[in-house]
Specification:
Elements lengths: L18 H15 L4 E7 L5 H9 L8 E6 L10 H11 L6 H6 L13 H20 L2 E6 L6 H13 L5 E8 H6 L4 H10 L4 E5 L5 H11 L6 H11 L3 H13 L6 H4 L2 H18 L3 H13 L7 H5 L3 H13 L13 H8 L4 H17 L4 H8 L10 H14 L3 H14 L4 H11 L4 H11 L6 H18 L2 H19 L5 H18 L6 H9 L9 H15 L6 H12 L6 H14 L3 H17 L3 H18 L2 H17 L8 H12 L3 H9 L10 H17 L3 H17 L10 H11 L3 H18 L2 H14 L2 H16 L4 H17 L3 H18 L2 H13 L17 H11 L4 H8 L3 H15 L7 H5 L9 H11 L1
Parallel strand pairs: 1-4, 1-5, 2-3, 3-4
Length: about 950
């Protein structure tokens, strides 16, 4: 029987992507015309275009001089003997008078049940051969039989019979076969017959491959009115896997939705393609044996990690599993080379026939199979999460173990998913509440606080309550609920003392130290409690730092000691001991506090090491809040070193993270850090916008944010020309710090800013008061940075030669410190003073130094101001512009430098311990920022003058070595 069938074609123009295959068929047809008998089998998965290729071949010029007989083997016809031959020859003999074997062969049902070697069958074969030979005697003959995987055995045996006897005759036989259907027909008589037919040397096998990207682009051009953009073609190829029929369905669906083939339309492919793939999956599974569906559903439930257990879940033998996977893979439902479904929509379509009860049963069985196989608890628990209830006794244990493993590998959000299901089983479990609160502390501290409050019942053992109270305190710190934590911690500490007595056991001492450390940390954050906390801490014993809790208390002690403003050595010693400890469980707060003290003392390498350690901890444990906080603190530290591009990158990243997280509004420090950098970069208006958008509720009551806000806002107002407004903000900062009894020269030196503003306003005498205040503090702390700032403040407040001498002292002190922006500022002020006194040559020397140093730091506002003063002093200097390289992050500069040196992306990724995709992302960002198109342009740009002749870490290190 010959039946027309729906095939996928994009237009009436050239067949896409099949030129070589068509050439092969044409060559065989030409050879057959001259007596070179041949056969060809076109194979490929469903939708690969076998029938389309065959039809195009038969309609082409190569078959013009031949008799073409085209038949289609219907699904289910394999049990009807010689049905395939009747489909081929029936139309040519219709109405003809047939005798003997030919009549027997072409009579439906006449050979039912007869084996190939039966006499009647052989008689029929000879009769059919005479029919074919008669046709071959007149002109070449092309027999084309489509979908031979559905063909009956006798038809295939006769074609083999014909080929063996047609040597020298102008005969070409072309068959099409679906490869995945052949896989599950293996072993059947028809399959063996086809194997015998195609085993001969005369048979050519054409395996149709998926369309390449360029072919997809050509198909889109033929199907849609406009040519495909590269992005559209790549997306279409990725979704369809280059399957022509699937591509046709996708393009028709997109056209029906009114989509074109542009860049914007490429974004629609994923959603539309998912629907097309899902329909494709349903259609294919409906037409396959039931065991293919069972395996598909097992794959859908188990996913990639459970591929080894598909047979057990589907309850089919291993060889059948392989056949089913071949069917699914050839049909494009599995990822190339993988064992999991290609798309979420496909997975949903595969599981759609199951009702809720059946699907739950399948997932429960999957969990048991994986558990019995010794798979990790997380893999098992992932199958329990979608269940409507945790009903089996073994399930809670698996969920708890999975949560512990997720916490250990730094995946708190995953751990929270397991623990929420556990909480459904036992809502009153203190252990589950505390674990869940720990998992939520980074992402949802408010929810974590509620869980901990519920666990802090008076009936709970005091030691357990103490551990929960410590966790409650640190969580309240993240949620800005310090006042709620302080009373709780004090009450628990008193109850703990009453319970433990004067000589507690080592474990109890550690517990008490933990509660004390959290009380110190929480108390030191609030403006209203820091003074009392310092007094309480002064009465405590300084710990050795040998345990995690001792390290945390030691770091908190370092902060409170430093804020006394005395000599830095004791605080630095405490901070170094805490930062260098290998005790890890509580290291976040320990490292934050240690880095703060080390930064105040200008121990820049040690501070940076602590911050880098903290950033690694944040990355490795998916602690995004901790990571963001560490980035902000490092931005402040880098700003203090004069590394403004690096500080800008860190602060900008922290602000972007906050913008994407629901807790972002509560974290003010990233915006304050970024605002400070923007002022020095010459963008005070942007800084002002950031500061104006900072919510007072999260800003004003905390020591570490309120005063920094006042300083940053004062500096932005000053840069915008509002000197009086700036002065008021600086004075409010000093007043509030004094009220909190925080008297430290290096921590937010408002007095230096106030003195300089007053001097600019012509109120030098008034500037002497903040200068004297700062000098007293600086002499107690004693680092070159604060001594230089004190000399600067006194210098601007002192007229005449004495003032110039003090400014010279400021330059000398600051040049010995890592504070490069302050050093440049001192050079500028000294140059301006010398210029005012008529010493032009000396003025030009210092003004040039100020401009150069400020430019290297990236302090563009200061460098422009210094250049203007230099020109006024008769000096010459080229106009300064911001290098676009200043906008690159440190990682982008590393990647760009390696790429400019000739390293490939994979090599760069290995050397920097990142993925190739990360390298590609960084390079794309570099090209955009530098306005270049490829890596060949990198080297000239990176070698351009003025581009980071001095790197910040080396410069800072060199100066520390000189001291």
């Amino acid at each position: 029987m010959v039946r027309d069938r729906s095939v996928t074609s994009f237009s009436n123009s050239t067949l896409v992507g099949r030129t070589d295959d068509m050439d092969t068929l044409n060559r065989l047809a030409h050879a057959a015309r001259w007596g070179h008998t041949a056969s060809a089998v076109v194979t490929g998965p469903t939708g690969m275009g076998k029938s389309t290729l065959l039809r195009a071949f038969l309609d082409g010029g190569a078959c013009r001089h031949a008799t073409v007989l085209h038949g289609l083997c219907e699904e289910g016809s394999s049990g009807d003997p010689l049905s395939g031959v009747r489909g081929l020859l029936g139309p040519t003999v219709q109405g003809a008078s047939l005798e003997g074997g030919a009549l027997l062969a072409l009579t439906p049902g006449a050979l039912a049940g007869e084996p190939p070697h039966a006499r009647a069958v052989q008689r029929a074969f000879h009769g059919l051969y005479r029919l074919a030979a008669n046709e071959l005697s007149r002109r070449p003959l092309v027999l084309a039989l489509d979908d031979v995987h559905h063909c009956d055995e006798l038809s295939l045996r006769w074609l083999d019979f014909l080929l063996r006897r047609a040597d020298g005759l102008p005969l070409l036989i072309v068959l099409t076969q679906q490869t995945e259907a052949a896989a599950h027909a293996r072993g059947a008589p028809a399959h063996r017959a086809l194997a015998d037919l195609t085993a001969g040397r005369r048979t050519t096998t054409l395996r149709l491959r998926p369309l390449a990207e360029k072919d997809v682009a050509e198909a889109v051009r033929q199907f849609l009115p406009a040519p495909a953009t590269p992005a559209f073609a790549i997306r279409a190829w990725s979704v369809t896997g280059g399957n022509p029929r699937l591509l046709g369905r996708l393009l028709r669906a997109l056209r029906a939705e009114g989509a074109g083939s542009g860049v914007g339309d490429a974004d629609r492919i994923a959603e539309t393609g998912g629907r097309v793939l899902a329909a494709w999956a349903r259609e294919l599974l409906d037409r396959r044996p039931s065991w293919v569906g069972e395996v598909a559903r097992a794959v859908a439930v188990l996913g990639e990690r459970g591929a080894d257990h598909v047979g057990s879940l589907a309850a089919v033998p291993a060889d059948v599993v392989e056949d089913a996977l071949t069917v699914l893979r050839e049909a494009g439902l599995l990822t190339s080379g993988g064992g999991h479904l290609a798309d979420g929509a496909v997975r949903a379509a595969v599981l759609a026939p199951l009702d809720g009860r059946a699907l739950s049963g399948l997932r429960t069985r999957a969990a048991l199979i994986l558990s019995d196989a010794g798979r990790p608890a997380e893999e098992v628990a992932d199958h329990l999460l979608p269940l409507p209830s945790i009903s089996e006794p073994w399930m809670p244990g698996v969920l708890l173990e999975a949560a512990v493993l997720a916490e250990a590998r730094g995946a708190p959000e995953t751990a929270a998913r397991y623990l929420y299901r556990l909480l459904e089983v036992d809502p009153d479990s203190v252990e589950v509440r505390v674990r869940l609160a720990g998992a939520l502390a980074e992402t949802d501290p408010a929810e974590a606080i509620g869980l901990l409050r519920g666990a802090l019942e008076p009936s709970v053992d005091i030691r357990t309550r103490a551990r929960i109270a410590a966790q409650f305190g640190t969580t309240c710190l993240a949620a800005r609920e310090n006042s709620a934590a302080l009373g709780m911690l004090e009450g628990v500490l008193d109850a703990l003392d009453a319970e433990l007595g004067p000589d507690p056991l080592p474990a109890d001492r550690e517990l008490r130290t933990l509660v004390e450390s959290v009380l110190m940390i929480v108390g030191s954050h609030s403006r209203s409690t820091i003074a009392a906390t310092r007094k309480r801490a002064a009465a405590m014993t300084v710990p050795a730092g040998d345990t995690p809790a001792q390290c945390q208390k030691l770091a908190a002690t370092a902060v409170l000691t430093a804020l006394d403003g005395q000599a830095p050595e004791p605080a630095v010693e405490y901070a170094l001991r805490a930062a260098r400890s290998h005790q890890l469980p509580l290291k976040s707060l320990s490292l934050i506090n240690s880095a703060f003290v080390l930064d105040l003392a200008d121990r820049t390498e040690d501070a940076m090491a602590a911050l880098d350690r903290l950033l690694r901890h944040g990355r490795e444990n998916s602690a995004l809040r901790t990571y963001t906080l560490a980035l902000s603190i490092r931005a402040l530290h880098l700003h203090g070193l004069g590394a403004l591009p690096e500080a800008l990158a860190d602060a900008g990243t922290a602000v972007r993270i906050c913008g994407a997280e629901r807790w972002g509004e509560m974290m003010v420090l990233p915006r304050l850090a970024l605002a400070g950098v923007l002022v020095d970069r010459g963008e005070p208006a942007r800084a002002e916008e950031l500061l104006t958008g900072t919510a007072p509720a999260w800003r004003d009551q905390y020591v570490w944010t309120y005063h920094r806000y006042l300083m940053a806002h004062g500096r932005s107002r000053h840069a915008l020309g509002d000197a009086e407004g700036a002065l008021a903000l600086f004075r409010e900062c000093g007043r509030s710090l004094e009220e909190a009894e925080v008297r430290h020269a290096a921590y937010l030196p408002w007095w230096a800013e106030a003195a300089c503003v007053l001097a600019e306003l012509g109120r030098a005498e008034e500037a002497q008061e903040p200068a004297a205040h700062g000098t007293r503090l600086a002499r107690r702390w004693g680092t070159p940075r604060v001594l230089g700032l004190a000399a600067l403040a006194r210098g601007v407040a002192t007229p005449g030669e004495r003032g110039v001498e003090l400014l010279g002292e400021a330059v000398r002190e600051l040049s010995a410190s890592p504070a490069r922006v302050e050093h440049a500022r001192a050079e500028l002020v000294l140059g301006q003073a010398l210029l005012a006194s008529g010493e032009l040559r000396a003025a030009r020397e210092h003004l040039r130094a100020a401009a150069d140093l400020a430019q290297r730091c990236g302090a563009l506002a200061l460098s422009q101001k210094a250049r203007g003063a230099l020109l006024a002093a008769g000096g010459r200097m080229r106009k300064m512009t911001a290098s676009p390289l200043d906008l690159l992050t440190s990682m982008e500069r590393k990647v760009a430098g390696l790429a400019a040196g000739g390293a490939k992306n994979r090599s760069i990724a290995q050397s920097l311990y990142v993925t190739v995709r990360t390298v590609e992302t960084h390079l794309t960002s570099v090209y955009r920022k530098l306005d270049i198109s490829d890596r060949a342009q990198l080297a000239p740009v990176l070698r351009s003058p003025g581009v980071y002749a001095e790197r910040v870490p080396q410069e800072a290190s060199r100066r520390r070595g000189q001291r």
